[in-house]
Every structure is written in structure tokens, then in C-alpha cells.
Design goal:
Blueprint lengths: L1 H13 L8 H24 L5 H79 L4 H4 L6 H116 L19 E3 L2 E4 L6 E4 L2 E4 L5 E3 L4 E8 L5 E8 L2 E8 L1 E2 L6 E2 L4 E4 L10 E8 L2 E3 L7
Antiparallel strand pairs: 1-4, 2-3, 4-12, 5-11, 6-7, 6-10, 7-8, 8-12, 9-11, 12-13
Helix pairs in contact: 1-2, 1-5, 2-3, 2-5, 3-5
Length: about 400
């Protein structure tokens, strides 16, 4: 009882968790629920009985939660990596766009310088043309040799400046071509970066969808865990009520037999197996109870059977009880005389009725799983003056 109470206390704590939308809250709730389940499993591991069903149920929900969390973590890591790639690519795009802007400004300046130089060359060419082109012929147009010499020197200077301007113009045009090529290369780089950015953003959106779906699954599994833990709590509360009534049930059974059994007669020395085949799955004596979770006296035999299988009277006698009986479920008790009675519990339905006289082998009911039972079987007892004894010694 103390272990069941401790287990119930752990379960009450476990059912207090509730899923929320925020990711941090989900992680906190997961940690809290995992801690409660771990404590519950520790309680179960310390129990004396076989509680593997509930342990398997909780292990199953833990396994599902672990798988979902693994998928969620993988999706979050992938999303984080993609976000880093997007940020880096966006920075590269911005840098490339800035470089293109700067190079376009340089190209514009170069184009301006080309225009100015070109205009200067044109002006100088026109000036030379006006002067007749050659310096020797133009000498005779001046009043003196001195004037002619000055004119020749001036013309030579203009030609020299024009040649320099042509060199500059050629160099500027070469620079212009290089700048155009660089701008085209950087635009190609920009397009490649924008392509990578589009792909990364599409993948990031896919990962965001996966993350959101996994988060919904986590919340759904948390609800499942809460429901499961509440079911375990309810089951234990129900079992505790049954446990509290077991001792009273045994005392009431002894009192019923003392009141209803006929005095005298000869007890049968051998009993007919109530089920065919009669396969004993749990013997008489102390055992680890499959539901209660601790050692208690098993007052009869558990005989394997299928739901609805026919149950036969083990000996002739009078039915002194037929009906539901607490943890025994639907039960028939037959008095065979000499203080010996047989009990048939957990039946799905009864055929014999209270007060009926039955002969050995008569159909009295059908196998079921009513009362405190883990599955279809027949619980069979032999009572001598109310006290339980090992039924196996009566089978030949």
C-alpha cells in the first residue's frame, strides 16, 4: 500500500504538466514530464509485482517522444545552419552590390574624362587645321621670320599636347573596357549569390514547416503522456479500492460458506477439471500479483481459457452462490458436502443459478475476465470449511 501511495503521488505530480505554444515552454515541459516519468519508472522498478504493462506503455510514449525530439532537433539544427548561410549570403550580396555601385561610379568618371579628353583633342585638331596643317607653308604668311618661328613653336606645342591627349584618351578607353568587364563579372557573381540565397530561403522555409510540425507532434505526445499518466493514476486508485475490499471479501466468503454449506456428507476425494484442456498458468500459494504490484496469497489456481469457453462443475453438488462478487467478478460456488466447496470466478456469464443441483461435468458458465482480472481465465478455488487449500491435489 505504501508503494502504491508513493506511485500515486508521483503520478499526481506528472499530470500537472501542460503543453504550451512557446518553444522554451515546450522544452521546460518536456524536461518536467521526463523527470516525472523517470520517477514513475523508478517506483515501478522498486515494486514487488509485475507492472510491465504500464512500464511498457510509458516506455512506448517515451520512445515516441524521443523520436519526435530527435527529428525536431535535427530540423532545428538544419534551420539554424540555413539561417547562417542566408545571413552570410545576404552579406555577400550587399558587399557585391556595393562594389558594383562603386565600379559603376568609377566607370561614369572614366567616361566623363574620356569625353573631356576627346573634346580637347577635337579642339586642338581644329586649331591645327585652321593653321593650314604644315608649319613650312604657313611661314610665308607672317610679316617676319620671328613671327614665323613663334608660330612654328606654337604649332609644335599643340601637336605635342594633342599627341599626349590621344595617349590619355587611349589609356582611358582601356580602363573603361576593364571596368565594364569587372562590372559584368560582379553582376554574374551577384546573380549566382542571389540564386544560392533563393535556394537557401526555400530550404529554410521547408525546415520551418518541419520544425512547426514536430512541435505540434511534441505537444500532442505530451497530451498523450498526460492522459496515460492520468489513466495509470485512475487504475491505481481503482486497485487500491479493490485491495481495501479483498480482506473483507475473504471474511465474507468464509461467513457465506459457514452459513450456506450443508452439514454432514462426504467430501469428494477427486475433482473433475473445470476446463478442457486444463492448463494452469498460476498456482496456489504466495505470488506476485499481476495488478496489485506486491506479493499476496493466491487462494486458488488460474486456469488458462478463451473468452466464452465452457466451464464445467468439478463435482456434483448444490450451487450456494451465483452472481457478481467484488474482485472475483461473476462467481459460482458449489457445495459438495463434507465441508468441501469449489469456487469459479471471473466468468463472462453464468448458466447455473443459486440453489441449483448440478452433476459433475454440467455446464455452469463461461470463461471471462470480470472482477480484478488481467485477461480471460478461470480462477478456481477449493475451500474446506471455509479455508482455502491447494486445488491441484484434487486433480488426478
Amino acid at each position: 500500500m505504501k508503494r502504491l501511495a508513493a506511485l500515486l503521488a508521483g503520478l499526481l505530480l506528472a499530470t500537472m504538466v501542460s503543453p504550451v505554444a512557446a518553444q522554451n515552454a515546450i522544452q521546460d515541459e518536456l524536461a518536467e514530464t521526463a523527470a516525472e516519468i523517470e520517477r514513475l519508472e523508478a517506483e515501478m522498478a522498486n515494486a514487488e509485482g509485475d507492472v510491465s504493462y504500464w512500464r511498457n506503455q510509458i516506455s512506448g510514449t517515451n520512445r515516441r517522444m524521443s523520436e519526435i525530439l530527435s527529428q525536431l532537433n535535427a530540423a532545428e539544427v538544419a534551420l539554424a545552419d540555413l539561417n547562417v548561410a542566408i545571413t552570410e549570403t545576404q552579406a555577400s550580396v550587399s558587399f557585391t552590390e556595393l562594389e558594383i555601385t562603386q565600379r559603376e561610379a568609377d566607370l561614369e568618371r572614366t567616361s566623363g574624362e574620356i569625353a573631356v579628353t576627346h573634346d580637347m583633342v577635337v579642339i586642338q585638331a581644329v586649331e591645327l587645321f585652321k593653321r593650314g596643317g604644315g608649319q613650312i607653308e604657313s611661314t610665308f604668311d607672317f610679316q617676319s621670320v620671328q613671327e614665323a618661328a613663334v608660330a612654328v613653336r606654337y604649332g609644335s606645342a599643340v601637336i605635342e599636347e594633342t599627341n599626349k591627349a590621344l595617349d590619355v584618351l587611349e589609356e582611358l578607353r582601356s580602363v573603361q573596357l576593364q571596368q565594364v568587364d569587372l562590372i559584368e563579372e560582379q553582376k554574374a557573381t551577384l546573380n549566382e549569390q542571389l540564386g544560392r540565397l533563393d535556394i537557401a530561403q526555400l530550404k529554410a522555409e521547408e525546415q520551418r514547416v518541419i520544425v512547426e510540425e514536430n512541435q505540434r507532434q511534441v505537444q500532442a505526445e505530451l497530451i498523450n503522456q498526460k492522459a496515460l499518466l492520468q489513466t495509470v493514476k485512475n487504475e491505481i486508485a481503482h486497485i487500491e479500492i479493490e485491495v481495501e475490499g479483498l480482506e473483507a471479501e475473504q471474511e465474507a466468503l468464509v461467513a457465506l460458506l459457514a452459513r450456506e454449506q450443508e452439514r454432514g456428507g462426504i467430501a469428494p476425494g477427486e475433482l473433475f477439471p473445470p476446463l478442457n484442456p486444463s492448463i494452469i498458468v498460476s498456482g496456489y500459494g504466495p505470488r506476485l500479483h499481476p495488478i496489485l504490484g506486491y506479493s499476496r496469497m493466491h487462494t486458488g489456481l488460474d486456469i488458462d481459457g478463451n473468452s466464452g469457453q465452457e466451464i464445467s462443475a468439478s463435482a456434483s453438488g448444490r450451487v450456494i452462490y451465483a452472481g457478481p462478487r467484488g474482485g472475483y467478478g461473476n462467481t459460482i460456488i458449489i457445495d459438495h458436502g463434507g465441508g468441501l466447496a469449489t469456487l469459479y470466478a471471473h466468468q463472462s456469464s453464468l448458466v447455473a443459478s443459486n440453489g441449483d443441483r448440478v452433476v459433475v461435468g454440467d455446464l455452469i458458465g463461461y470463461v471471462g475476465s470480470t472482477g480484478l482480472s488481467t485477461g480471460p481465465h478461470l480462477h478456481f478455488e477449493v475451500r474446506i470449511s471455509g479455508a482455502h487449500t491447494d486445488p491441484a491435489v484434487y486433480f488426478g
